Amino acid sequence: MTEKASFVCPRCGNQDPLLVGNKNGQPYCRKCIAFLGEEMTPPPYRSKTVGFRLEYSLSPEQTQLSKTIVSNYKNGIDTLIYAVCGSGKTEISYGVIGYAMSKGQRVGFALPRRDVVIELYARIKKAFPLSKIIAVYGGNHEQLEGDCIILTTHQLHRYPNYFDLLILDEIDAFPFKDNEVLQAFFEKSVRGHYVMMSATPSKCIVSKFQGEGKSILSLHTRFHKKPIPVPVIKVRLFFTKYWFLIATLRRFQKQRKPCLVFVPTIAMSESLASLLKLFIPQGSCIHSKSEHRTKIIQLFKEGKYAYLVTTAVLERGVTIENCQVIVFHADSKIYDAAALIQISGRAGRKSKAPLGEVYFIAERESEGMIRAIEEIQYCNTFLQGVHEAF
Predict the structure, then answer these.
(1) For the chain, where do the domains classified as CATH 3.40.50.300 start and end?
(2) Residue whose C-alpha is closest to residue 97's, from 39, 163, 185
(3) 116-147 pLDDT tens trace
(4) Is this structure's pTM higher than 0.85?
């Protein structure tokens, strides 16, 4: 019992004796036992040529932030980028990624969700055509070494004391949020410095970046300098909420505007999708247990579906041109202000279609809905100052 009580897991830091087992006289951690696999050793430093290209030019505001991030990294300062959805957080980080890779340093870009890793991998690979960019996630970990590794936070356990630069996006997203094991993997994988990014950082995260050796950079405007679509609350009781949903989806279909319909649970996503197909057949459903998720998302992007009924699996990271957003049962307890802000951020992300419609359909107004709208309106107030400055 004394051995169990004194055991500290070297991988996740667990020291709870109730979560410590014993095999052949040796203690082991039950908390992170599911995370087994090859652990990588950092290769020697070798300077490299890094090609870098963007499909569009950074704004003056984005350019300054990018330079500051590089400067922070050179000076050993960890950075929190507090930026609204669609502000171009990923592109702002390309400067420091390119700098670190040019020095032969180990670079990682971690995100909580597999679907977002797949999409980001394609974007970064295109931006750095001369570098070896790889993706590591569940079911895709045959290749574990590259100049820049795009990976889920679950896969960080393979890289102890490995990354000179580790970028972590969506720090407030499930399953990373409040997950002690994943947070321990993140901390143990950094041997240099890190950059965290979020559109909705918690007060706890913000407070951690207010000390020495830390920096908070903010960007409250989207890269195309158009306002973030402000959600409209539609209070509808009983079957009238379905009438409004169907009528709105039919209007979007006539206007050739794709729509994401968010619901709180997997069961509701499947039942609602079945109902909607009776009225609007050109739709589909996607959630964390869906097969062929990547293919369904691609077909949606190609216009094969007029709408997707989805859970929080598409809450972040995925960009659909001219996308409209509906949150059905937006008063559900699962939707706090941060989640609703992220969901609303799926609309109006492209410069060719910078505007969009967002609806919160509910039987009552919740605190989360009201706070989300207030925060989006607050961010939009920065546009006037940006227009005057540039």
Answers:
(1) 60-219, 232-388
(2) 163
(3) 899 899 999 999 999 999 999 988 888 999 99
(4) no
- Cite the DSSP H helix spans in the chain: 2-6, 60-74, 89-92, 94-102, 114-127, 180-189, 203-208, 240-254, 266-279, 293-301, 337-344, 367-380, 382-389
Residue 77 and residue 215 in contact, taking contact as beta carbons nearer than 8 Å? yes
Q: Coil, strand, or helix at residue 256?
A: coil
- What letter represents residue 261's amino acid? V
Residues of the chain where predicted confidence (pLDDT) is lower than 70:
1-5, 317, 383-390
d(CA 318, CA 350): 12
**Residues 232-388, CATH architecture:** 3-Layer(aba) Sandwich (3.40)
Specify burial of residue 6 (Cβ count, 10 A radius: 0-12, 13-18, 19+). Answer: exposed
DSSP per-residue letters across 169-198: E-TTSTTTTT-HHHHHHHHHHEEEEEEEEE
pLDDT digits (tens, 9 = 90+) for 164-183: 999 999 888 778 888 899 99
Domain 60-219 CATH class label:
alpha beta
Q: DSSP for 337-359, please give it.
A: HHHHHHHHTTSS-BTTB----EE
CA 131 to chain centre: 23
135: its two tokens: 């993706």
